[in-house]
Fold:
Amino acid sequence: MAADTTNILIVGVGGQGTLLASRVLAQAAVDQGHDVKVSEIHGMAQRGGSVVSQVRYGPKVFSPIIKRGDADVIMAFEKLEAARYLPFLRKGGLMVINTDRIDPLPVMSGEVSYPERLEEKIAQVVPKTIKLDATGIAAGCGTSRAANIVLVGLVGRALSMPLDSLEESVRALVPEKVVAINIKALNAGWNYMDDALISMVRD
Structure:
């Protein structure tokens, strides 16, 4: 991983808006003059399937693929997906976990049990872990479907992206009828980063 390249791994399940999140972050990075590469390498059309998007930006980016141990940030829309892709996070990287739980098919069928206390277990091995109920925060903004944009706001601030660039990306990429709700969700995620969290992330 080049020191001047920022790598964001976005993981979730189908229907959670991982691709929109990656596009918003990528557009904001483009607006700041970065070279940007985006890839969705495990996308599945059906709801419930694991989806992984990758965003890499910097002065010059040659590949869209983030290798194991190279992600500066993992943005996890669901806690089981956070655990699944933990090996991709670099030492000292940031893990952001939406505490939402979506049971995969083996759990729904009763074949296996959903692992308990995943967020706590991840935080024990990743000092820079932020856990939040992005789905609940988004619901308070008008729709739980904007949880992805709540996470974008938080991660954008953690990476020192300008809020106005993120807002412009949201306005350009979401349907006009839900722009106001998504801008509210973006700001909610941005403001979740209080001084203590900012200090922890940037230490």
About this structure: The first helix runs from residue 18 to 31. Strands lie at 6-13, 35-40, 50-58, 71-76, 89-98, 129-132. The chain has a mean pLDDT of 90. DSSP finds nine helices and six strands in the chain.
